[in-house]
Write a sequence for this structure.
């Protein structure tokens, strides 16, 4: 049974109905199907949202809290931003004394200054068959077959491809325009496998715990490790090319 919504948000001139964590989850799952109670508790533990508490300890969320959660989840889903960057953006809103917009937030683009460019949510949630992947990515059948042979693109389950496969295939198509062939990408696969092995040592202990909060922290840790790895790789390539560019 859901907890009754009542009370008014402190400091507000208009009463704000308060919602239980279950009611908030139902609201968010319309746009974020992967949202869970553990995820909401984790974001609270990280200080990204601070719901009120009843005398019995139940969480009570205002609409401003929900808007804040939407901002966080959108930033993660659409731009793959690490929590550190999201926390800084929220701090800016807090400093202005305004909550994040309750509509879909206009996120700040990130780049060479340290943040990580993201990919479109459509690509992230894609589930494509072989013909769709070829049509959307721009690779031809022979190239896709070679990418699969090299282990650069993997179908899961066989015959279906997720959003990451689309992102990889699109990147390969872009590199091909500069003369790079699939055989040149074997090093990327090997380097990625080494990183997976390294990062797995960090997140596996958390992922194996029965505590849902620990598993949520494992997922967030993996997300941030990927973001940091992307930043490091891009910076190292820029440094390596600097002398070639005469800068």
């Amino acid at each position: 049974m859901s907890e009754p919504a009542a009370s008014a948000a402190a400091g507000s001139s208009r009463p704000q109905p308060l919602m239980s964590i279950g009611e908030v989850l139902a609201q968010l799952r319309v746009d974020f199907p992967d949202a869970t109670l553990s995820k909401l508790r984790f974001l609270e533990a990280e200080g990204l949202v601070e719901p009120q508490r009843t005398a019995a300890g139940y969480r009570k969320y205002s609409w401003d809290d929900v808007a804040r959660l939407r901002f966080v989840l959108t930033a993660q889903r659409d731009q793959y931003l690490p929590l550190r960057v999201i926390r800084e953006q929220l701090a800016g809103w807090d400093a202005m004394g305004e909550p994040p917009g309750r509509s879909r937030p206009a996120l700040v683009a990130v780049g060479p200054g340290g943040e990580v460019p993201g990919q479109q949510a459509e690509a992230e949630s894609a589930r494509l068959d072989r013909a769709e992947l070829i049509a959307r990515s721009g690779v031809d059948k022979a190239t896709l077959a070679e990418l699969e042979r090299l282990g650069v693109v993997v179908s899961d389950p066989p015959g279906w491809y997720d959003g990451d496969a689309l992102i990889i295939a699109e990147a390969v198509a872009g590199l091909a325009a500069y003369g790079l062939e699939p055989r040149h990408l074997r090093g990327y696969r090997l380097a990625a496998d080494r990183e997976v092995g390294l990062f797995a040592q960090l997140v596996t202990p958390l992922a194996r715990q029965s505590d849902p909060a620990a598993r949520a922290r494992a997922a967030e840790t993996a997300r941030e490790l990927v973001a940091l790895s992307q930043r490091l790789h891009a910076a190292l390539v820029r440094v390596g090319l600097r002398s070639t560019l005469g800068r």
